[in-house]
Design goal:
This protein has about 190 residues and is of the alpha/beta class. It contains 7 helices and 7 strands.
Length: about 190
């Protein structure tokens, strides 16, 4: 199975790394790639061909704010022709109704349940994504909410660790004057 994570830029040089993707740990049977518009903008200039070349089974957009809505709408509508399931995660998931009705996004992953959703989809052999927990989807102009289920373990041994290799920390550190090795983590408060 192959997952493609798409992170459209939202705020220019004020961007922070897409930690939401990093914190989704997957087993070794999953191949995944991150297209980050901040670090690799050329991948977005010909997005459809680049997605075809990677040939993912599922596409995931990260939307942190309403500022990302237009880009996600534009990119997801272009990707609809590929007939791949398109998911949205992040803070923009709270605006699920306009996202599902006006973009190419098929499923919204409920905020705060991303890690358990990814654990579930990796374990699932189901062909119907609509049966998965922790998602919202549109069918015949009706919005459906699947149950919330937290699948994260109760002990440290059951908890996955972030995949730090997924994010280009050097880019974000340079752009924001962040000293990743010292006391100062963020150069500007949020």
């Amino acid at each position: 199975m192959k997952f493609l994570y798409l992170y459209p830029s939202e705020l220019g040089k004020e961007e922070i790394p897409p930690f939401e993707f990093m914190n989704v740990s997957l087993d070794n049977s999953i191949e995944y790639k991150l297209f980050d518009e901040n670090t690799t903008p050329d991948l977005f200039s010909n997005l459809e061909d680049n997605v075809r070349n990677f040939n993912p089974d599922l596409i995931f957009f990260l939307g942190r704010s309403i500022k990302s809505y237009r880009k996600i709408k534009n990119y997801s509508l272009k990707l609809q022709e590929l007939n791949l399931p398109i998911f949205l995660l992040g803070d923009l998931s709270t605006a699920y109704e306009p996202v599902l009705k006006n973009t190419g996004v098929d499923f919204v992953i409920k905020k705060g349940f991303e890690r358990s959703f990814f654990k579930q989809i990796v374990k699932s052999n189901s062909k119907s994504l609509k049966g998965l927990d922790n998602i919202i989807f549109l069918e015949e102009n009706n919005i459906f909410f699947n149950p919330l289920k937290d699948l994260i373990g109760n002990t440290l041994d059951e908890t996955d660790f972030p995949n730090y290799n997924l994010i280009d920390f050097d880019y974000y550190a340079k752009e924001r004057n962040i000293n990743l090795g010292g006391e100062q983590i963020l150069a500007k408060p949020f």
